[in-house]
Amino acid sequence: MHPRLLKTFLAVARNRSFTRTAEEVHLAQSSVSDQIQSLETELGAALFIRSRSGLELTAAGETLRRYAEEILTVADEARAAVEAAAGVAAGTVMIGALETVASMRLPKWLSTFQSDHPDINLRVKVAGSGDLLRKLEDGEIDIVFCFDKDGLDEGLAKRTLSAEPLILIMPPQKEAAPKRGDLSTLASMSFVATEVGCIYRHLLDKAFDAAGMAAPKLAAEVGSIGTIARLVAAGTGVSLVPRLAVADALDRGEISEMPWPGPMRTASLVMIWRRRRIQPPTLKLLLATASDSFALAKPADARPRHAVSSPL
What we know:
The chain is an alpha/beta fold and 312 residues long. The chain folds into 3 domains: 3-85, Arc Repressor Mutant, subunit A (Orthogonal Bundle); 91-162 and 268-293, D-Maltodextrin-Binding Protein, domain 2; 163-267, Periplasmic binding protein-like II (D-Maltodextrin-Binding Protein, domain 2, 3-Layer(aba) Sandwich). It is built from 11 helices and 11 strands. The protein is globular and about 70 Å long.
C-alpha cells in the first residue's frame, strides 16, 4: 500500500466526498477515484459505500483507517530517524498560522531563521484555527501558530509563546465607554463577533463565561477579524479581541481600545505540533528557536494607544 494512496484514502474518509477531496489535495476528481479503486483492488474489499449524506466507510474501510494512520505515522518517524542519524538539517517545514499572527508575529522571526538556515525551506499556510489544526492532525502542516483553545487532541503538543492582552474595541471618541473594572455596563452593549467555531468567538464566549455573564447581544456575526474592526469603526457595535489582532487598525486611529474589565485578561498565543517519538531535525530546530526568538507582546496593563476616556 503506497503512502500516497493511504493519504488520499484518509482524505476521502474525512471529507466523505471525492469532489471535496480533489479540491483539498489538488487532484482531478477522476484521479482521486482511481486511487481509491486501486487501493480497493489491491486489498480485495470495498472501502466506501454511498449514502444520502455522502461516502461512508465500510467495515473494511474503518479497519483500514486505523492502520493507515499508524502506517503514515511510522513512515514519518522512520524518515525523521534517518535524517537525524545522517545529520540532515535540510528540507521543508510547513507552518500554519492565523492571518493576524502570520502578519504581525512571523515575518521578522522567519526571515532571521531563513537567513541562519538557508537549506530549510519554509512554507506558510494562512487559515482559521479549526482548518489549521485539522491539517496538522492529518500531517499536511508541521506546526501551527494560533490562540489557545480548550480540548486539544492528546496527540498534539503545545507551548505558550506570549500572553496577548484582551481589549474592548470601539469607534474613536466613543462617548459611552464602559467604566474601567465595570462589567455591568456591557450588558446593554451590542457586540460584533466572528462566527461560532472561530477562535476569536471562542475567546469572546470564554471571557464572558469567566465573568459570570450571559452571552452578549450580537449586532453582527462575520467571518474575519478585519471585518470586525471595520464594523466597529463604523459604529455597528463593540468587540472583544486580542490586541494583536487589531494592532494595525489601532495604530491608524480607526478604532479605540480599553482593557477588558473581566477576570480573563489575556489570550495565550501558542505553537502546536504533533507528538512523535522522533521529530524531524528541521522541525526540531524550528521548535528550539521559536520560544527564544518570538517577539513578546507588551504587558496587559501597559497603557493602550488610542485609549478612550471613561465618562461613567
